[in-house]
Amino acid sequence: MNTDSHLQTNMVPPVAKKQPQILELHGDRRIDNYFWMRDRENPQVISYLEAENAYTDAMMQHTQGLQTQLYEEILARIKESDLSVPYRKDDYYYYSRTEAGKAYPIYCRKRGSLDGIEEILLDQNQLANGHDFCDLGVLAISPNHQIMAYSIDTTGAERYTLFFLDLNSHQLYADIIEDTYFSLVWANDNQTVFYTTIDDANRPFKLFRHTLGCDVADDELIYHEPDDAYHLYVDKTRSQEYLFLTVGGSITSEVHYLRADDPLGKFEVIAPRNIGVLYDVEHHRDYFYIVTNEAAINFKLMKTPVANIGKENWQTVIPHRQDVRLSGVSAFINHLVIYERKGGLPTARIQNLTTGAENQITFPEPTYDFDEDTNAEFNTNILRFSYTSLITPPSIFDYDMDTNQRELKKETEVLGGYDRTQYRSELLMATADDGTSVPISIVYPRDIKKDGTNPLFILGYGSYGYSYPVTFASDILSLLDRGVVFAIAHVRGGEEMGRQWYEEGKFLHKKNTFTDFITCAEYLIAQGWTASDRLAISGGSAGGLLMASVMNMRPDLFRAVVARVPFVDVLTTILDTSLPLSVMEWEEWGNPNDKVYYDYIKSYSPYDNVEAKDYPEILVTAGLNDSRVKYWEPAKWTAKLRDMKTDDNIILLKTNMGAGHSGASGRYESLKELAFEYAFVFDRLGVGKE
User: Fold this and answer.
1) I need a labelling partner for 325 at 20 to 30 A (CA). Which of 83, 291, 398, 612 fits?
2) Backbone phi, then psi, for 182, in 5-degree steps?
3) How far is CA 274 from CA 131, 224, 309, 606, in A?
4) How far apart are CA 570 and CA 552, in angstroms?
5) CB–CB of 148/122 below 8 Å?
6) Which is catalytic among the residues 135, 369, 608, 626?
């Protein structure tokens, strides 16, 4: 029994007794006692969530001083008034900056040179006035730099309203378009835009053409994708010659193209969709370059003449390789940048398209993250990229693709005297039961001893082919400086080790994701990095599913768990096609209308596998306006855990009543949420109490 004086179990919010929902399929019956929580219009639901928040606040009241301390020290490391590295587009330099005390960026530009007069394009702080939440969706400048399209969401539901601003008069056009999504492109006439709208399930499913100044009601529907398994995305090539419409799912894609000089023309398909085949397209002069997994699980690079794109004209540029994942290509006037993953790490090669010579971009650390930054111009030999690691702050480089020389443009400043030599990072390998080596990125104070006494915090995700980025965050110093080891488990379901790594962590292999994470935890304990009573874990969304699943499988292995907006009621959610993205989820988890997939998903779905046993200390977060993982999943899961668990450990539910999937939108409120989570972990692990 926990004897802490602040733990008053009679404060747990009561759960209303309602008629249980009986869910039947394939002759199987599931009883959901908390199905009633789905009814957001029921005042009892909101009252329950508010009661849970009050309970969480009360149970964390004794950590208020620690929360304040953490927030202040995390904030103190951040240069509040800062400037991004400006990028050039034609005669303008675009950048964003932040000001102390203001929660959101200010978007600006200068004409002619960086010594020019600053022009403020958009101050998101002004847009956020009167709103608890404000997220910027698109910000797209017309080719002549005279008009700006931008969209905002003020609820967290990811339904954006699109506006157009005249950058000469700074007057808004009357054109206002509701329910748009994240993509928009300008045609080269500076008057025509193409944008996507979303259906009731938040799926971008229609592409419209809009002429500035015309009635939005008259916008022409260019493309409608009726299949719920696909979403639409529209973008423009760096060459400025083509617009691409991508119709994509997780296993199949189809790309359509239109000359940017011909906005009234018709989009033409490059290659009709073929189930199981993914491809992306890049343009360079007379060719389309195509990255595809057709007969190439780790993808290969093809090219075809723009004038004759038929499959019979596709030529192999880079063949498939078993040990290298081709992630994508990026074209400039004389160079092709080839992005790859090998041995769990991202890399890039530069190919001179005139001479055929190649340069490899190399990096000095054992584990890191590297990505292309903003490269707006086609006619250049400079590649701008970002680099970071667990001990190197985010850094922007300009790389000369002819000389192979790089110039550091900016390293994010960490205030307070950060000394990277006091920390070390490594890439470790744990061995799963099937012999698979699972990577672990780890960072720790350099003088730490592997004697099993260190608190350790592990993050994980492992879904949708998302490779967990190994990035620096100054808030992690609040862990390291208290002796907490920080690690990322690169489990199957991501693509760290290639496309096969993803395939081995989805469908009927999904449990590999969970057992890999357990393997990593056991390895770190066996190697003396920590002990189970000093181990905390965290993951969000599908990473929250990971947290809940490993907790069901090995609750003894972890002391504390943070599950952020966790996707835990897998069967119920993806069987309900009225919910956002449900049908698309079948390509990740399997279609439970098929009994084989139903049985397999049910065998690990966290909500369906809560049992009468001891569980760790748990913090669960939710967003009332979350369109991806509805608030009721974490709420129902919390209630069921409380009803069935046999221990006295606490479980807390914290719902942001004015935000969605990503939590608070402003940087200060986001830091407060982070400080709250860290305070929970420190309190449960006893960090600072030794």
Assistant:
1) 398
2) -85, -5
3) 44, 18, 16, 34
4) 14
5) yes
6) 626
The answer on pLDDT for 579 being more than 90 is: no
Q: Six-digit token pair at 574?
A: 């993806």
β-pair partners for 400: 382, 405
Q: From the candidates 661, 662, 665, 683, which is the catalytic residue? A: 661
Residue listed under structure tokens 């994010």: 412
Which stretches does DSSP call E strand in 312-381? 315-318, 325-331, 335-342, 345-352, 358-361, 368-372
- Residue 190's alpha-carbon distances to 217, 263, 457, in angstroms, are 20, 10, 50
DSSP H helices, 153-196, are none
DSSP three-state, residue 289: strand
Asked about 131 being catalytic, the answer comes back as: no
Measured between alpha carbons, how far is 672 from 159 in angstroms, rounded to an integer?
A: 25
Amino acid of residue 402 = D
Which architecture, in CATH terms, is 9-75+417-685?
3-Layer(aba) Sandwich (3.40)
Q: Kindly name the residue from 142, 425, 463, 541 that is annotated as catalytic.
A: 541
Domain residue spans of the chain: 9-75+417-685
**Across residues 185-197, what is the average pLDDT?**
98
Name the burial class of residue 578, with classes exposed (0-12), middle (13-18) and buried (19+) by CB atoms within 10 angstroms of its CB.
exposed
For the question of residue 57 being annotated catalytic, the response is no
Q: What is the DSSP string of 534-573?
A: GEEEEEETHHHHHHHHHHHH-GGG-SEEEEES----HHHH
Interatomic CA distance for residues 690 and 682, integer angstroms = 11
pLDDT at site 18: 84
Q: Which residues pair with 74 in a beta bridge?
A: none
Q: How large is the average pLDDT for residues 309-314?
A: 97
Determine how many CB atoms are found less than 10 A away from the CB of residue 348: 23
Give me the percent of the chain exceeding a pLDDT of 90. Answer: 95
Assess whether pLDDT exceeds 60 at residue 4.
no
Q: Can you tell me the distance from the alpha carbon of 348 to that of 110, in angstroms, rounded to the nearest whole number?
A: 31
Residue 650 has what DSSP assignment? Answer: -
Phi/psi at 665 (5° precision): -90, -35
Asked if 156 and 135 touch (Cβ cutoff 8 Å), the reply is yes
> Cβ–Cβ contacts within 10 Å for residue 165, how many?
17
Average pLDDT for 21-42: 96
pLDDT at 690: 56
Length of the chain: 690
